[in-house]
């Protein structure tokens, strides 16, 4: 052992960290003893506080200074062996003191004690005598009687009596302790746990200075218990990382053994209390632990106090999870099961948390009580209410493993599918076959059957879904509202998402549509308005928009309401209300993200991507679509992957990223997807990719197939998939202007509203079939409508076409101005750069980035929008001016004088700090009031 000089001017072993003062006190007692003043020292400390280490170091010092040392260590077994400790002491006597057998030979306790005491006193006259007894609380009564005789006669002798006891053993030799305290020569030395600095010093001595930085964490784990600290050091030296430190989840073997050693050396009460705490864990109040163990409150209080002194617990809880793990893992499986079963019953009877009861039932791994299944179900429901799926899955899976009733098992499996759906829809697939069989066996009610149908359809299991649809069509109407509401929801779900699977209405027993005439619930109502928007030919009317908003305002985001919320959002999207839908979707996405429900986030991200695409924000559309696909995977999306993957494909194609588009087209999609509404979005996106890559016949085939399906399904809404203008664009490229014109006019007739975004896009396509002069008029009207609708992608395309039209008319200034505006819009929306003659000869812009000559910077403050600084009249004039209208054309269109137009433009240029029309902001809106004059 290495040594060093301490601040007390003594040589101490390195291992005796923070014990220099205690060793100094013992040295002072030894000095007084050498002078003929006998002393008594009682060293008190918790188990593993360093008492034995201190006594050994002191014993070495005594031997060095010439004292005669008698040393003994009591054990738990010595309590029943008379004179066990005294024999150890007498065995240390020199040969001339006589054999031990002669001293203890009489066998009479009082005589032995008297003789032994006299012998020791006689020896002290020849040389100072140091009597050391470690763990004196385990000493036998006869030996203690001898020590007491010595205590009463050593005041003027050269005897130093040093005893060490565990501070936790309050009930051992109380009379002896009282007698010791009465002695004037008595001194108590209390050993305190290591401080943080002490732990740091120990780490430095054994592991180097770098590891001392972890001293605070080591102290928090051990409470300064030397044995536990040393165990941590050993584990660190072996594994290279401190157990319990952030990033380390393993329990070191040395630390585990040290914890158990401390508990076993402390006594059975402490060990039992620690085990009770380990099993009850966070549910273990002092009262509950006492009841659990069958102990009195006072007995438990003493055991807990001992554990706290030991450094095992703090404030009634284990100091560290690894400390609890050491105690918990030491329990035999059978004992563990018994304890957890007892704990579950105790908590259930005492009104404990249902999740706590369920945790103990799961940990027991076997239950025979009838109430256990119900408790596990309630616990799963509570966990779901807190958006914590992991314990909910654990409870239901365990309940399934012990449940024997078929109907109950079907209910549990249905709950398990619903829970797994929140984070892993693909993981729920393996439970669908048993659930389908349970439905065949009559174990599912109408509501459960409808939910199973939804899941089967989602995953493209067509044959099983058809059987369930047939079953539902045969349900007879009843006075009960619940089946009617469920059937109404199924009816509308089939109408808007899976119209190919609507059953033949000619059947006599077909009651599915009879029950679905008036949607009584929010889910059925949301499906009904979505079906209405998709099925009508004139776009979304005000009633559908109003109902969708009411549903969103009154709905709380939940598993049961997710479908309603998504249907209401889709109603707003296809009713051409992207701004309104975006606000609602953003708020719902924020809530879904804060609650951490993965499938909610995926579903809402997919819708947000579609909204961004319709607004022309291709970067956001791609980001949200990728997020949606990443959260639950392509397989997790089932047949609905067509919508999200289609949005992603559409976005990257519009950006000109054909390599990514080809990669997404290689994704495997369910064959059943093309029999659903979601396949239409995918087909349209694929058609646009074919169109962009000059595969015109393939594009026309996809667009035409969309039309066939939509007409046959009665979902022929141009605001959903405008397949006619898509096909018309292909026909224009193929030179068939007449068919292109007919299809476009047919679509415009179906739209109805001249302010519709789809109507504006149709005007752009129709312009491609017109003469130069007619094209210019149609494109101007298209741009006005698209600018008001907020569709930047189609607006950019229309502006590009308008620029080309002006150039064809020889109006090169207007062509160049509008072309540059289109370029700025394209850049902001992440769109593909459009090459045209006007852009090939750009006029030098007012402000130019030095690093990139084809980039324009806005002269106005980026944080201030035009709407913030311009009046409505100024915005209207500025919007038309940015589109290339002359002052006279603007005055005619807005029914104001040319002078008023000039005044408005002067104010606009001053407020926005621009010098020419080409620098006007791209987000200027023109609210269409009257068509062109």
Tally of DSSP β-strands: 9
> Structural class given helices, strands, pairing?
mainly alpha
Give the distance, in angstroms, between the N- and C-terminal Cα atoms.
Answer: 105 Å
Mean pLDDT: 84
* Low-pLDDT windows of residues: 1-14, 513-519, 835-863, 926-933
Instruction: Indicate the proportion of strand residues.
Output: under 5%
**How much helical structure, as a percent, in the residues?**
55-70%
Total helical elements: 45
Rg computed from alpha carbons, rounded to a whole number of angstroms: 43 Å
Described by the principal axes of the CA atoms, the overall outline is elongated
| Spatial order of strands in the largest sheet | 4-5-6-3-7
How does the major sheet shape up? 5 strands, parallel
Describe this entry's structure for a reader:
With 933 residues, the chain is mainly alpha-helical. Helix content is 62%, strand content 5%. The strands form 3 sheets. The protein has a 5-stranded parallel beta sheet, sandwiched between helices. Strands 1-2 form a two-stranded antiparallel sheet. It has a two-stranded antiparallel ribbon with strand order 8-9. Mean pLDDT is 84; it is low at 1-14, 513-519, 835-863 and 926-933.
What labels would you give this structure?
933 residues; mainly alpha; 5-stranded parallel β-sheet; disordered N terminus; disordered C terminus
Topology:
Elements: E1 3-5, E2 11-13, H1 20-34, E3 39-45, H2 51-64, E4 68-73, H3 84-91, H4 100-104, H5 109-126, E5 129-134, H6 141-151, E6 159-166, H7 174-182, E7 186-190, H8 196-207, H9 215-222, H10 226-239, H11 253-266, H12 268-280, H13 286-293, H14 297-310, E8 313-314, E9 317-318, H15 321-329, H16 333-349, H17 354-364, H18 371-385, H19 389-402, H20 406-421, H21 432-440, H22 446-458, H23 462-473, H24 481-496, H25 522-535, H26 542-554, H27 562-574, H28 578-595, H29 598-614, H30 618-637, H31 641-654, H32 658-665, H33 677-692, H34 696-713, H35 723-734, H36 737-751, H37 757-767, H38 772-789, H39 792-808, H40 812-829, H41 837-840, H42 866-869, H43 872-882, H44 887-894, H45 898-912
Parallel strand pairs: 3-6, 3-7, 4-5, 5-6
Antiparallel strand pairs: 1-2, 8-9
